[in-house]
Design a protein that fits this description.
about 0% strand; MetI-like fold; 12 helices; mainly alpha
């Protein structure tokens, strides 16, 4: 187990280096000049050049990248080109919001998708199975922003059960946070729940036909013990992989959901930074989200090892 963790951590450093290098190179292809935007439309050529020198944009690309990399190694991701705010501070304020939304959606996907997948497998080719598969297909095909707007119109505007927009931090008021996070969580987690249900159904059907399940049943073990201790443990491996994959997808989809529900997370920050061509913030966001995905995959590998002795 420790060797697995060590190998994953060794892979993380070159992966982060490659990602930062790729983002920095892609920034050269982005049209527009931040110095022109900051100096203003009516600025003279001399004013634009002074602004470019002040921001360090006149220096060669590799020098700027190496300086940024040296700062990132110390935990300093640079400053915003437009506001001069610390990128590390901005991410420290907004990342917990996005992580809270993403993890809530992941928990929702597990709580809804796992029971639905088990029920569909146990009632294979019956009306319960057909209903769950139909709903799962709709859930995967339905855009998250459309579902979010629909939930807002019905449950927030018409029924008044939930707030329309805004976000209350968990540390300030847990009850208000839970009340306000329900609709964004459902909108973000519904496609993930549908995918979990589909994958678990398929895996459970295959597992229930295995010889070790039939042997355990023939030995007289209770059906629910065979189902929970043997079949579900074996069938859960694909679900762990799906949840780890969904974590990356949810982080990307959170950009739109945060815009719909006006949640001040890194998604909203990323959109505004791309519009303003504030590439220092974009680079910091990519690094942090990559690190979150790497940690998620590491946890998924550990879960695989725990569920399957053969993996260990």
């Amino acid at each position: 187990m420790l060797a697995l963790i060590g190998r994953r951590l060794l892979v993380t450093l070159p992966l982060l280096l490659f990602v930062t290098l790729l983002v920095s190179l892609m920034s050269l292809l982005v049209p527009g000049d931040p110095a022109v935007q900051i100096a203003g439309e009516n600025a003279t050529h001399e004013q634009i050049e002074l602004t470019r020198q002040r921001l360090g944009l006149d220096r060669p690309w590799h020098e700027r990248y190496l300086d940024w990399l040296a700062g990132a190694a110390r935990g300093d991701l640079g400053n915003s080109v437009f506001t001069n705010d610390s990128v590390s501070q901005l991410l420290q304020e907004r990342l917990p919001v996005t992580l809270a939304l993403t993890l809530s959606a992941l928990v929702f996907a597990a709580l809804v998708g796992v029971p639905a997948g088990i029920l569909a497998a146990l009632r294979r080719n019956r009306w319960q199975d057909s209903l769950i598969r139909g709903v799962a297909t709709i859930g995967i095909a339905m855009p998250g922003y459309w579902l979010g707007l629909l939930l807002l119109m019905v449950f927030a505007i018409q029924l008044g059960l939930f707030p329309t927009i805004g976000y209350t931090p968990l540390t300030e008021n847990p009850a208000a946070w839970l009340h306000g996070i329900v609709l964004p969580t459902v909108a973000l987690g519904a496609p993930a729940a549908a995918e979990v249900a589909r994958q678990l159904r398929r895996s459970m059907i295959d597992t229930l036909q295995q010889d070790f399940v039939r042997t355990a049943t023939a030995k007289g073990l209770r059906y629910w013990m065979v189902l929970g201790k043997h079949a579900l443990t074996h069938a859960a491996n694909p679900v762990v992989t799906v949840l780890a994959t969904q974590m990356a997808l949810l982080l990307g989809a959170a950009v739109i959901i945060e815009k719909v529900f006006v949640i001040p997370g890194i998604g909203e920050l990323a959109v505004n930074s791309v519009i303003n061509k504030d590439l220092t913030i974009v680079q910091g966001i990519v690094v942090v989200t990559t690190l979150v995905i790497v940690v998620t995959n590491l946890l998924a590998d550990l879960a695989h090892a725990w569920l399957s002795p053969r993996t260990r």
